[in-house]
Amino acid sequence: GAVVSQHPSRVICKSGTSVKIECRSLDFQATTMFWYRQFPKQSLMLMATSNEGSKATYEQGVEKDKFLINHASLTLSTLTVTSAHPEDSSFYICSATLGGPGTEAFFGQGTRLTVV
Amino acid sequence: GENVEQHPSTLSVQEGDSAVIKCTYSDSASNYFPWYKQELGKGPQLIIDIRSNVGEKKDQRIAVTLNKTAKHFSLHITETQPEDSAVYFCAASSGQAGTALIFGKGTTLSVSS
User: CB pairs below 8 Å between A and B: how many?
Assistant: First the structure.
């Protein structure tokens, strides 16, 4: 199947700093990618839909100025957590679809963010 | 928007037994229903999916059934093995390009030998 690569897999940062997470579709082009957040022992919560060449669509309750999403190419979307605080510590996962009706979503391996 | 309910939240079975996880969805427009397995610290892996024009799909020890009228779908794992232990998520979407998956809360399956 298609491969989605997410980097880094783990990151520890100091409170107040910003962290960038990359999501790449390695062997296909993805006009749309999705960013999810997962707290321990909880489900994946959709944060935003990332559209190549346009602004991301954020879910209700997700601060767009806090979680900056850029989808500059058909194979790369980035999520930047700005001015990170301990409550931003979480597991962030991206996914991409091949496109077309009823399409399978492929997930990255996730990024464990710890803000100290 | 779509809302997906998943039960049970935890499930413990003996090796060789069957395991069943059930999900319901709210949006009648949803027509794509995948199941994912997630191991600790990793991203979800698709294990099986079903589309609304099909009532049942099977892949070796794993099967999924769909009842569109009742808006529920189920995952069936037969002859469970310890390596089946993981968190399983159901999801639903309209299946159109650019539509995100909405996930259930997950089921932690434990298979003891």
Answer: 64
CB burial of residue B97 (10 Å; 0-12, 13-18, 19+): middle
**CA B54, B57, B59: angle at the middle one, nearest 5?**
160
- With a CB cutoff of 8 Å and minimum separation 6, the contacts of A85 are A15, A16, A115
CA-based nearest residue to A94, from A41, A56, A54: A56
CA angle, corner B22, sides to B19 and B23, nearest 5? 150
Residue range B68-86: mean pLDDT, rounded = 97
pLDDT band with cut points at 50, 70 and 90 for residue A23: very high
C-alpha A44, offset from chain centre: 12
DSSP A41-108: TS-EEEEEEEETTS--EEPTT--TTTEEEEEEETTEEEEEE-S--GGG-EEEEEEEE--STTPPEEE-
Which two three-digit tokens encode residue B4? 């997906």
Q: What pLDDT score does A100 carry?
A: 57
By the 10 Å C-beta count (0-12 exposed, 13-18 middle, 19+ buried), A26 is classed as exposed
CA distance B50 to chain A (A): 9
A34 to B101: CB separation less than 8 angstroms, yes or no = yes
- pLDDT tens-digit readout, A50-66: 888 888 999 999 999 99
Binary contact (B51, A44; C-beta < 8 A): no
Higher pLDDT residue, B79 or A28? B79
